[in-house]
Amino acid sequence: MSERNTLPEIFESFADARKQGFLAAKAVKDAGKNLVGYYCTFTPVEVIMAAGAVPVGLCATSDETIPESEKVLPRNLCPLVKSSYGFAVTDKCPYFYFSDLIVGETTCDGKKKMYELLDEVKPTHILQLPNEGKSQRSLDYFREEVQSFKERLEKEFNVTITNEDLKKAIQLKNRQRETLKEFYNLMSLTPPPVSGLDIHKALYGSEFKFDKEAQIVEMQALTKQIYETYKVEGSKISENAPRILITGCPIAGATEKIITAIEENGGVVVTYENCFGTKAVEEMIDETLEPIDGIARKYLNTPCSVMSNNQDRLDKLSELITRFKVDGVVDVVLQACHTYNIEGFSVKRHVKEKHNLPYIALETDYASSDTGQLKTRLGAFIEML
Question: Is 270 helix (H, G, I), strand (E, B) or coil?
Fold first, then answer.
């Protein structure tokens, strides 16, 4: 287990926002708490919370560290995988730097092999996911994985996790999900009260909040403030702005250039069917079930392209298209992401045939070099709407 409580030597070279991340993570360590870093929506953070540790999403958001990662990883690999590894080995991610344990998962092939290398940097627990999401066999298997994860945390941190601990963590995390859901449901209003970029920043930022109770209070206050202002002053966004749904990869660092290109061309992003959007917060854990069973069921229902089949994703898209009154769908795929790239055919067919909506697929990475091309393509798409 890591005993790291000091700042890295390169701390003074960082921008203020990243310095604040380091200081916040250090404060957790100074308070005597363990920090557990994770990368994926499949990670059952309730088990981490029940262990008395603090879960935090890890950095994989830009191309800043990719040159360093390419000294080890192949260049023709998904940028998210390369960015994840690069931030880890360069000490540029405050949350990885101070984490006592890292949690990975067997989603895509690139991440699976990268985690083997990451384990050489810091202790890494791998959640073994089944390939099929909707069967009793898969549920039984993943339930054992959640139990194994619980036992690893107990051993790592010398604690005992009781059912009562798990129930309390489930209740708290469910409350947080409900609060985030109420926040982004503001975008179902016509016109939306805020921009899609504002919603994205809030949802993505929630991955790096340590105090869940404080975050719930903050998000409830923000939701109320936005809605009260909207009722009195209306919205700066036009009622005629085409309403866009973004689906696809957990695009992180590529997100803002896509959203900006859409909204600078007169559209507004009203919802996200990706790992930092609805996938993470839509489904609650059933609090009437035995805790480990409830946790396993919720996370196994995540509609990710690594699952076969993935009809749940198409069903979720239909529900979001209706709820948010969507005018067009933008499918964002990171370079070398085979599962989302192939599944794009099914998504396109579903959007066009079932909903008769325009669809565009964009393949991109974390670099800014394609920003002009993206603006041109999305401008033409928005104009068509």
Answer: strand
pLDDT tens by residue, the chain, 385 residues: 445 666 555 556 445 655 677 788 888 899 999 999 999 999 999 999 999 999 998 988 789 899 999 999 999 999 999 999 999 999 988 889 999 999 999 999 999 999 999 999 999 999 999 998 889 999 999 999 999 999 999 999 999 999 999 999 999 999 999 999 999 999 999 999 999 998 887 777 666 678 899 889 989 999 999 999 999 999 999 999 999 999 999 876 677 899 999 999 999 999 999 887 888 888 999 999 999 999 999 999 999 999 998 999 999 999 999 999 999 999 999 999 999 999 999 999 999 999 999 999 999 999 889 999 999 999 999 999 9
Strands 359-364, 328-334: pairing is parallel
The answer to whether 187 touches 226, Cβ cutoff 8 Å, is no
Hey, what amino acid is at 366?
A: Y
Displacement of CA 350 from its chain's centroid (Å): 24
Instruction: Give the residues across from 360 on adjacent strands.
Output: 330
Cα–Cα nearest to 268, from 306, 300, 242: 242
- Could you tell me the residue ranges of all domains in the chain? 11-159, 165-384
Q: What is the Cα–Cα distance from 177 to 171, expressed in whole angstroms? A: 10
Domains 11-159 and 165-384 share a fold: yes
Regarding pTM above 0.70, the answer is yes
What is the architecture, at CATH level 2, of domain 165-384? 3-Layer(aba) Sandwich (3.40)
If DSSP codes are grouped into helix, strand and coil, which group holds residue 225?
A: helix
Q: Which CATH class name applies to 11-159? A: alpha beta
**Nearest of 145, 90, 84 to residue 114 by alpha carbon:** 84
The three-point CA angle 49-204-262 to 5° equals: 160
**Chain centre distance of CA 326:** 22
Rounded Cα gap, residues 282 and 145, in angstroms: 23
The rounded distance, in Å, linking the Cα atoms of 295 and 292 is 5
DSSP count for the chain of H helices, then E strands: 16, 8
